[in-house]
Design goal:
about 190 residues; alpha/beta; Rossmann fold; 2 domains; seven-stranded mixed sheet; 7 strands; binds glycinamide ribonucleotide
């Protein structure tokens, strides 16, 4: 199988990155993680790139030319697929144009509910019966692209934000690889 050269964008802990690295090491998983991009120098997730000898770069989104730096590196590493795994910045229109239907994101809610930030506190406040995660294509609208996979669980009365986060993460570790397999099975 020819694996797609993939770039993972992160901002924080990178547990989804860690999980995708583990999957990508299987011969029949459709992607190879060829680059990790972080907008945060302190992102713990970078340690997984270091551990598995995956090239990584930092980008400073406050700098004017940061988008060029991303695009040049995507070209350098021949990237044909992008996963946003806890990347807490909005992706520029230009990047989306260059990678139409080739950028996916994981979001910790059952979209279209709870787009944006502070998902878990809002789920509790709204007394939602169900919570979960969504893997979707990225378009110009925040958390707005078409869905690839969604997984849910029922919220318990005594769930707090931390518990919701843990339960959601567990689902994410299944949903993200499944979504990637689903995308490339079609092609
Ligand atoms: C994940 O739960 C992901 O769904 C969320 O950030 C977390 C990153 O965890 N993404 C968003 O909220 C994007 N709007 P990780 O760094 O341990 O993979």
């Amino acid at each position: 199988m020819v694996k797609r050269n993939t770039c993972i964008f992160i901002s924080g802990k990178g547990t989804n990155l860690k999980n995708l690295i583990a999957h990508s090491r299987h011969a029949n998983f459709p992607i190879k993680i060829s680059l990790v991009i972080s907008n945060n120098r302190k992102a713990e997730g970078i340690n997984y790139a270091k551990k598995f000898k995956i090239p990584y770069i930092f980008i400073n989104t406050k700098l004017k030319n940061y988008e060029n730096k991303i695009l040049l590196n995507l070209q350098k590493y021949k990237i044909s697929f992008i996963c946003l795994a806890g990347f807490m910045k909005i992706i520029s229109k230009n990047l989306i144009m260059n990678y139409q239907k080739k950028i996916i994101n994981i979001h910790p809610s059952l979209l279209p509910k709870f787009k944006g930030l502070n998902t878990f506190s809002r789920i509790l406040k709204e007394k939602e019966v169900k919570a979960g995660c969504t893997v979707h294509y990225v378009n110009e609208k925040l958390d707005g692209g078409s869905k690839i996979i969604q997984k849910f669980f029922f919220v318990n009365d005594d769930d707090n934000e931390l518990i919701l986060q843990e339960k959601t993460h567990k689902l994410e570790y299944r949903a993200f690889p499944e979504a990637i397999i689903k995308i490339f099975r079609k092609n």
